[in-house]
Amino acid sequence: MKKILIAEDEKNIREFVVINLQRAGYVTFEAENGDEALRIYDEEGRDFHIVILDIMMPGTRDGLAVGKVIREYDPSVGIIMLSAKTQEIDKISGLMMGADDYITKPFSPSELLARVDAVYRRVSLIGDKSAAQRKAELTQGEFVLNQRNRTFHKADQPIELTQVEFQIMEYFFTNPGVALGRSDLLKHVWGPAYVGEEKIVDVNIRRLRMKVEDEPSNPKHIVTVWGLGYRWDT
Q1: How is domain 131-232 classified at the architecture level of CATH?
Q2: CATH 1.10.10.10 segments of the chain
Q3: What percent of the chain has pLDDT over 90?
Q4: pLDDT digits (tens, 9 = 90+) for 161-178
Q5: In CATH, what number does 3-128 get?
Q6: How far is 29 from 161, CA to CA, in rounded Å?
């Protein structure tokens, strides 16, 4: 089953999302606020492929707070934020929290499905790759990336990565010292059919630097290649 949890307080939008996802073959669970979303998430054994969260919701937890809790439970679940055009800061906050993507209201059924399908492909790909297809460990300097159990260590200390962050690091590790353009990263991690903005790459790189670098403001490993993108150095 392709299970998705949708948390949106506006009934019309929630029903629009649910109907279109059900037509596309997804099994949907819906909540009208953050607290209800977390209750359903727990009741279903925290077993979802994707969670769609409206940023602004009534109650004790908004979408950002719910996303943070769910991300702590499950680094590999796909998280998509719904936001209004005026919520640019909240979009960035959502991505920094660990969301995989965001959709700006209003949106069409085709945009909704394109974004959801892209995230689902990434999530399912992680589960589908057999151990035989993966080299167990990639080591570069003090960093070790294990493709079999999806772990990442720096100087023997584990660093927890989201599934998007892991795929970025995996791409870096297989292309050490190579200048990778934002469009290359976007196509490799988010897929060639991704219809969002390139800034999602920059936000995820900023988040990775906070986890990987000794001095995130003066990175030594994830280096900016001006006018192009980023390079991984060890």
Answers
A1: Orthogonal Bundle (1.10)
A2: 131-232
A3: 65
A4: 988 899 999 999 999 999
A5: 3.40.50.2300
A6: 26
